[in-house]
């Protein structure tokens, strides 16, 4: 299994994972390193828009025949995963409605940063993947949040949360992550590969560097939540590790059934396994303020994200290789 | 110089609430507002804004009636679950008729 050793080495020793580790170290060592809020915002805008642009340009070269089955599988994941997450958290985790729904929204939705890291991981191994995969990120981002919030609203009639459904959907769909991803996809699609060429020196080539810097910041933010481990308890820590493995296997399996390549199936696994921390926290905070942010932010950011980064990526790749024979 | 007695309502809140608060403050009768980024610490501890942006401080000059409406609205919709601080001060405003 020289292959597996190489996979693990590439995964663990990539600049992105190491930058994340440096961020964790910076916080634990109480370094004075701190990203200005504007830098974090600018980097996230850049990353989301770049992912959209590149995906849109690739989508322009994709036929409907290649695309419909993976798209359907992605939507099915987005609707179904929050349902069993919610049931599991309520029954086994004994969480209240708001906390269970908040976590279900995060685990059903997707992390664009984990997704980007997985593409770079595949490129490092020289494995091809389908170019339309960023479109699947956009498809997976919203449905789970809507499903989870609907579950909570059904259980908590008259719950505080301010806006009505119309206002809520408006806030969700015009949130920066959806707007940038979808907007980038449309612009990339309309411009096609020639259009992308014009902006490639800014949006394609420096992407990995920007992602590495972003992961440094993520490491710091994740480590700040380590102190909340005691508060979230053993069940949620287990959930934050077991759920991505189950969802990852499901995503890889569905991707394989939908005709994706080894790389594409692995990435669908990553999408299913990852938990959102840009779109979902903002939406949940607005719509479900009674849920405790300690739970969902700590689980998504300090447990599931590092797990996927270090162990998940090679694991889902091995699952995909095994399923593809 | 001629001044008019008005109320200054200050609202300090999580940044995720910015669009909502701005919209509602205007709907409830404020003619304008000043918004600044704010940092600090309070009784609530952990909040989403640690990750999704800082706090905001929204100030608006309004009549006593509007100030009352604003505070009632905040109490009904925000105090229970969100990190929100609000207070009212008496101020003497130049060209005060602009604000009512």
Question: Helicity of chain B, in percent?
Answer: 25-40%
How many strands in all of chain B? Answer: 4
> Total strand count of chain A, please?
0
Mean pLDDT of chain B: 87
What order do the helices and strands of chain A follow?
Answer: HHHHHHHHHHHHHH
Describe how the helices and strands are arranged.
The complex is a heterodimer of chains A (325) and B (100).
Chain A: H1 2-12, H2 15-28, H3 37-59, H4 64-91, H5 97-108, H6 112-125, H7 133-155, H8 165-173, H9 176-203, H10 207-225, H11 229-257, H12 262-273, H13 279-287, H14 293-323
Helix pairs in contact in A: 1-14, 2-10, 3-7, 3-9, 3-10, 4-5, 4-7, 4-11, 5-7, 5-14, 6-12, 6-14, 7-9, 7-12, 7-13, 10-14, 11-12, 11-14, 12-14
Chain B: E1 3-14, H1 18-27, E2 34-38, H2 49-52, E3 55-62, H3 64-77, E4 84-94
Antiparallel strand pairs in B: 1-3, 1-4, 2-3
Task: Explain what the structure shows.
The complex is a heterodimer of chains A (325) and B (100). Chain A has 325 residues and is mainly α. Chain A contains 14 helices and no strands. Chain A has helices at residues 2-12, 15-28, 37-59, 64-91, 97-108, 112-125, 133-155, 165-173, 176-203, 207-225, 229-257, 262-273, 279-287, 293-323. In chain A, helix 7 runs antiparallel to helix 9. Chain B has 100 residues and is an alpha+beta fold. The longest helix of chain B is centred in the last third of the chain and has 14 residues, at 64-77. The mean pLDDT of chain B is 87. Chain B has helices at residues 18-27, 49-52, 64-77, and strands at 3-14, 34-38, 55-62, 84-94. The chains are: A mainly alpha (325), B alpha+beta (100). Chain A binds chain B through residues 37, 41, 160, 162-163, 171, 221, 224, 228, 277, 281-282, 284-286, 289-290, 292-294, 297, 301, and chain B through 14, 16-17, 19-20, 37, 46-48, 50-54, 77-78, 80-82.
């Amino acid at each position: 299994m020289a292959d597996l050793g190489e996979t693990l080495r590439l995964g663990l020793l990539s600049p992105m994972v190491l930058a994340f580790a440096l961020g964790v170290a910076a916080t634990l060592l109480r370094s004075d390193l701190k990203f200005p809020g504007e830098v974090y915002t600018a980097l996230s805008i850049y990353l989301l828009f770049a992912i959209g642009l590149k995906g849109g340009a690739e989508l322009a070269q994709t036929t409907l025949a290649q695309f419909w089955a993976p798209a359907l599988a992605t939507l099915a994941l987005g609707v179904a995963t929050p349902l069993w997450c919610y049931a599991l958290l309520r029954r086994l985790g004994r969480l209240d409605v708001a906390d269970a729904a908040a976590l279900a929204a995060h685990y059903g939705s997707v992390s664009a940063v984990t997704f980007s890291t997985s593409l770079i991981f595949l490129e490092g191994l020289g494995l091809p993947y389908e170019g339309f995969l960023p479109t699947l990120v956009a498809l997976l981002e919203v449905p789970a949040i809507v499903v989870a919030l609907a579950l909570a609203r059904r259980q908590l009639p008259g719950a505080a949360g301010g806006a009505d459904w119309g206002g809520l959907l408006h806030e969700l769909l015009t949130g920066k992550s959806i707007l940038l991803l979808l907007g980038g996809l449309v612009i990339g699609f309309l411009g096609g590969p020639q259009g992308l060429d014009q902006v490639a020196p800014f949006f394609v080539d420096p992407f990995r560097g920007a992602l590495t810097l972003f992961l440094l910041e993520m490491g710091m933010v994740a480590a700040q939540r380590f102190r909340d481990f005691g508060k979230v308890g053993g069940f949620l820590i287990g959930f934050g590790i077991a759920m991505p493995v189950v969802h990852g296997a499901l995503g890889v399996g569905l991707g394989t059934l939908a005709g994706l390549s080894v790389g594409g199936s692995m990435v669908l696994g990553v999408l299913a396994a990852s938990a959102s921390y840009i779109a979902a926290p903002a939406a949940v905070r607005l719509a479900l303020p009674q849920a405790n942010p300690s739970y969902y932010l700590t689980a998504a950011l300090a447990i599931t994200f590092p797990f996927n980064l270090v162990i998940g990526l090679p694991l889902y790749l091995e699952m995909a290789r095994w399923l593809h024979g | 110089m001629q001044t008019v007695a008005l109320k200054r309502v200050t609202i300090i809140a999580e940044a995720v609430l910015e669009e909502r608060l701005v919209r509602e403050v205007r709907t409830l009768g404020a003619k304008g507002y000043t918004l600044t980024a704010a940092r600090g610490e309070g009784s609530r501890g952990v909040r989403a804004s640690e990750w999704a942006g800082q706090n905001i401080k929204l100030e608006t000059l309004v009549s006593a009636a509007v100030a009352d409406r604003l505070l009632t609205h905040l109490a009904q919709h925000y105090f229970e679950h969100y990190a929100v601080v609000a207070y009212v001060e008496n101020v003497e405003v130049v060209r005060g008729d602009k604000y009512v």
